[in-house]
């Protein structure tokens, strides 16, 4: 029996249904997705227990569709919630229970903007079996060669040809029937990132909060855990749990509960100070380098966070700076290279006023300095991001000249990558760094040279990031999500 003659078994087909109520539309998405994934899990269980299957098993992602015949009267102040012009639009959906609030909000806005219903049904995109069984602890997909059949002969598997960033990169992505995208990511792309996210952070995507802090130092993790425990002791804080790798959970009932380091820590240890509404704070220690920064933001972006900030260490480039001073980035010199193919180097990365103000206000609150006095410890300027950790060991004339010409005041290996991916994915971004060395002025990052800085500044720096996040949390979404980040033809969903 050849593959193309193998019968294909699928759940009973479901016709597309029209909805004028967003909650009802999302409930149908949840039902269809559960039906498809349950079918694949049962089929997979039978296949691994029963030997060689005599059929192929397939289920499909659900989808949302909308058709508009007029331009509509959209609120031009919003950076999301409407399509650019009349036409057919669609998006495949995965994990609708995880994205329930997001989907409800986006679908409701879309219907109100264009005064048309949405339709919900099954798409033509198969669900890879790996993603269907991902959250079932009793099932694991073995490597090819373990089972008596080839996985790809019986089930659909992840396909990199359909898992990409074509939509956010603006390369003219359309679905097979010509429908244009409603959302920045397809279902397969989201599933891929959710799986990678769980792997890199050792935490469940369910626990990720809407406000994400990135750092490049373990000291910040220790301080974040300490702050989280204090916040849980305060019944007015709104925080309900501190979640760490491997699902470790500290709650207000026992804020002093142990949180152990795992025998094998994940590549990017992540901790979530959670609120019931998801408006808490997630801290990700991405480690060092633009590749790590791209990896983390590539995957976290599918969760559609409201803002992400970089709070880490940098090299100060000006003689007037001291160890422990702050740098608020208002521009980026991109020499990280990891995004050159996705976002050309000539694209400017604008500073976002709402984020900049929140960060500066937070510095004022924590340091008790303001106005002209604040200039003693904080500079606003260009941050250069490079991909060579030991750039100091190369011939200096070229690098130093570029740094001087760009008016850079600080140098790191992550900030521009995080900002550029925020720009690309329409996630508001910002950077506040702390000077930990001054390589151009003989103050190298060597053991003992910055010990005082580490003791005094890390907690203060982290607190500034947290204060900024708490300020941004109070800001309406329509203010926070900037129209600066919209291209000529942007997706309707945030």
Give an overview in words:
Helix content is about 30%, strand content about 20%. The chain is of the alpha/beta class. The chain has two domains: about 5-195, AMP nucleoside phosphorylase, N-terminal domain (amp nucleosidase, domain 1, 2-Layer Sandwich); about 200-485, 3-Layer(aba) Sandwich (Rossmann fold). The strands form three sheets. Strands 2-6-4-5-7 form a five-stranded mixed β-sheet. A five-stranded mixed beta barrel has the order 13-16-15-14-17, surrounded by four helices. It has a two-stranded parallel sheet with strand order 1-3. The relative contact order is 0.12.
- Element-by-element helix/strand order: EEHEEEHEHHEHEHEEEEHEEHEHEHEHH
Output the CATH homologous superfamily of the largest domain.
Answer: Nucleoside phosphorylase domain
Using the alpha-carbon principal axes, give the shape: globular
CATH architect. name of the largest domain: 3-Layer(aba) Sandwich
């Amino acid at each position: 029996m050849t593959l193309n003659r193998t019968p294909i078994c699928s759940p009973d087909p479901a016709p597309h249904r029209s909805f004028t109520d967003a909650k009802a539309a999302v409930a149908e998405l949840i039902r269809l997705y559960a039906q498809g994934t349950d079918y694949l899990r049962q089929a997979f269980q039978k296949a691994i227990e029963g030997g060689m299957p005599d059929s192929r098993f397939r289920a499909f992602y659900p989808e949302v569709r909308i058709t508009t015949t007029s331009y509509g009267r959209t609120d031009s102040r919003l950076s999301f919630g409407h399509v650019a012009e009349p036409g057919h639009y669609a998006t495949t959906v995965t994990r609708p229970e995880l994205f329930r609030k997001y989907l409800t909000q986006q679908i409701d806005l879309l219907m109100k903007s264009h005064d048309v219903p949405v339709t919900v049904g099954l798409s033509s995109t198969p669900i890879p079996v790996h993603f269907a069984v991902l959250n079932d602890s009793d099932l694991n997909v073995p490597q090819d060669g373990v089972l008596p059949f080839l996985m790809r002969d019986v089930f659909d598997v992840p396909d990199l040809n359909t898992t990409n960033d074509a939509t956010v990169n603006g390369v003219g992505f359309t679905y097979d029937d010509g429908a244009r995208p409603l959302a920045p990511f397809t279902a397969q792309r989201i599933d891929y990132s959710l799986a990678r996210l769980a792997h890199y952070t050792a935490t469940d995507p369910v626990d990720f909060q809407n406000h994400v802090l990135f750092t490049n130092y373990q000291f910040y993790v220790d301080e974040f855990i300490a702050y989280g425990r204090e916040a849980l002791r305060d019944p007015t804080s709104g925080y309900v749990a501190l979640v760490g790798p491997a699902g470790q959970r500290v709650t207000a009932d026992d804020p002093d509960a142990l949180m152990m380091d795992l025998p094998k820590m994940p590549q990017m240890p992540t901790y979530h100070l959670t609120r019931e509404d998801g408006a808490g704070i997630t801290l990700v220690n991405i480690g060092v380098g633009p590749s790590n920064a791209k990896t983390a933001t590539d995957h976290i972006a599918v969760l559609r966070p409201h803002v992400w900030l970089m709070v880490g260490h940098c090299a100060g480039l000006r003689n007037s700076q001291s160890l422990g001073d702050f740098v608020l980035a208002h521009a980026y010199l991109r020499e990280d290279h990891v995004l050159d193919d996705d976002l050309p180097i000539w694209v400017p990365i604008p500073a976002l006023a709402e984020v900049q103000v929140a960060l500066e206000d937070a510095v004022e609150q924590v340091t008790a300095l303001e106005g002209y006095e604040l200039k003693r410890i904080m500079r606003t300027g260009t941050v250069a991001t490079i991909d060579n950790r030991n750039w100091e060991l190369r011939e200096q004339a070229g690098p130093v000249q570029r740094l001087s010409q760009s008016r850079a005041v600080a140098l790191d290996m992550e900030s521009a990558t995080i900002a550029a991916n925020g720009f690309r994915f329409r996630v508001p971004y910002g950077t506040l760094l702390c000077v930990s060395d001054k390589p151009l002025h003989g103050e190298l990052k060597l053991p003992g040279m910055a010990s005082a800085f580490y003791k005094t500044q890390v907690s203060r720096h982290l607190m500034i990031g947290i204060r900024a996040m708490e300020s941004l949390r109070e800001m309406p979404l329509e203010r926070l999500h900037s129209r600066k980040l919209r291209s000529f033809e942007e997706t309707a969903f945030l």
